[in-house]
Amino acid sequence: MKPGSYGPFPYSPIIRRPRLAWPEEARVALWVVPNIEIFSLETRPGGLGPGKIPDIPTWAIRDYGNRVGVFRIMDVLDRHGIRATVALNSNICLQHPEIIEEGGKRHWEWMGHNQSNSVRLNEVPADEEPKIIRDTLDTIARASGRRPVGWLGAGLQETWNTLDLLADAGCEYVADWGPNDDQPYLMNAGGKSIVSVPYSYDINDKQAFEAAHMKPADFQDMICRQFDTLYREGATSGRVMHIAVHPYLTGQPYRIDALDAALEYICKHDKVWKATGSEIARHYRAQLKG
């Protein structure tokens, strides 16, 4: 990707696109993305800036997600028959393989999400970026038995080289650019194409609880309102309903029921396709081929 003022794709107003049809005439593709992350005691979590090390409270809150919260989220998704697409720090495979085992039982899809959330791609020397991407995908492949074909950068951060490196590594889709649309689209990645899959910046518990200081009921209401609009618009052309959750946030006892109730509301509607990232990307490509 060459530096420029706009992304490596043409501007496309949603009102002037061909109709997007999902399987079985679904109006909405429901895409739920748990962000399962790991943080080192020796560094500050990405995005928090400098501070004294070790920061025990900040670290312990996040460790709660991997010890307790993620399993609450698994139970909720099981109850609604939803197969998650996980944005996975690959160091989880090395330090908490039990999580990979439990996700494997559920046939969850794994998406590369850097090695840990303590370092972002735009914070490392240029020659380290290809190695981080390759090692992330290789580690997840060894642990899960299947190489990821999707990517979400830590903090959704990229460099000018990231898309090209992801395409060269065999990735079929990426979510970093997803906040800019309600439908997938193709991006140019160094002569190859890669699908951008919608990834809402707001229907994300990190923004809701940490930035906007919402109560669980507010987050639940926001999810349902988002769905209502996309479901209505999806009657003419399919939309993607994305939900991002972090085990250390939504996995808290006083928040988990809000996710459960929101998914119950969504899943009681017909014409909702419970999809993974690769299913959305591949179906979109098939639509383009006619």
Write the layout of secondary structure elements.
Layout: E1 28-36, H1 56-79, E2 85-88, H2 91-95, H3 97-105, E3 109-112, H4 129-144, E4 150-151, H5 162-168, E5 173-174, E6 185-189, E7 192-196, H6 205-211, H7 216-233, E8 239-245, H8 256-267, E9 272-274, H9 277-289
Parallel strand pairs: 1-2, 1-8, 1-9, 2-3, 4-5, 5-7
Antiparallel strand pairs: 6-7
Helix pairs in contact: 1-8, 7-8
Question: Nutshell version of this structure?
Answer:
By secondary structure, the protein is an alpha/beta fold. Helices cover 38% and strands 14% of the residues.
How would you describe this protein?
The chain is α/β, with parallel strands linked by helices and 290 residues long. Helices cover 38% and strands 14% of the residues. It has nine helices and nine strands. The strands form two sheets. Strands 1, 2, 3, 8 and 9 form a five-stranded parallel beta sheet that branches. It has a four-stranded mixed beta sheet with strand order 4-5-7-6. Helix 1 (56-79) runs parallel beside helix 8 and helix 7 packs parallel to helix 8. The longest helix is centred in the first third of the chain and has 24 residues, at 56-79. The model has no long low-confidence stretch (mean pLDDT 95).
